[in-house]
């Protein structure tokens, strides 16, 4: 459930506007994903983070290309193995996001959604034309949502995405929107700049 995110004004957060085309092509389209309009760009992922009391919520959206190297349905044994390996990495948010042990955080819930994992595209019950479905399959995303309960939230001084960049090297930039004890902030993280303070 995304109760905390629904209550937070992420639409008001400024995002950096640098748009790289690391793979040499521009999709030139926008797609609706989980209630927000986003541009699908290889090499760029988006992360929403919110710390409210002892609850930490993280929401990662990334083109599948960044995580597995392709966006089509996993048909071959090699593709299926890559999708399974990415899934196994994504179910370890404490490692991927550098959550310090001192914060004593436990994953309360997590959801991974992507056609790569056998999920059908999520459309909030709205019927869509076949063309739109085909377009989404051509440019599939991975959406991960995590909710954690932390016994010592004061020990959460920053997020460190070093492991995320290391485990998914095709991810070149992560546009972050964060709400924490010091208010709202936006940043663009790269493998040379992997941390963001709460």
From TrEMBL:
Keywords: Signal. Residues 119-140 have a biased composition (Basic and acidic residues). Residues 115-140 are annotated as: Disordered. It comes from the Bacteria. It comes from Metapseudomonas boanensis. The keyword Cell inner membrane does not apply. Pfam families: ZrgA. Residues 1-20 form the signal peptide. The keyword Signal applies. This is DUF2796 domain-containing protein.
């Amino acid at each position: 459930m995304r109760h905390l995110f629904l209550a937070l004004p992420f639409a008001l957060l400024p995002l950096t506007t640098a748009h790289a085309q690391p793979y040499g092509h521009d999709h030139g389209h926008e797609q609706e994903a989980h209630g927000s309009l986003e541009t699908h760009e290889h090499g760029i992922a988006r992360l929403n983070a919110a710390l409210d009391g002892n609850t930490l919520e993280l929401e990662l959206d990334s083109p599948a290309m960044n995580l597995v190297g392709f966006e089509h349905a996993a048909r071959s044994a090699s593709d299926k193995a890559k999708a399974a390996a990415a899934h196994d990495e994504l179910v370890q948010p404490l490692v991927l996001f550098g959550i310090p042990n001192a914060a004593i955080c436990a994953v309360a819930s997590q959801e991974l959604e992507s056609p790569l994992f056998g999920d059908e595209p999520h459309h909030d019950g709205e019927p869509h034309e076949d063309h739109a479905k085909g377009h989404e399959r051509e440019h599939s995303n991975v959406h991960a949502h995590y909710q954690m309960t932390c016994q010592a939230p004061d020990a959460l001084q920053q997020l460190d995405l070093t492991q995320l960049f290391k485990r998914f090297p095709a991810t070149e930039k992560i546009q972050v929107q964060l709400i924490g004890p010091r208010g709202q902030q936006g940043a663009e993280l790269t493998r040379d700049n992997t941390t963001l303070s709460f």
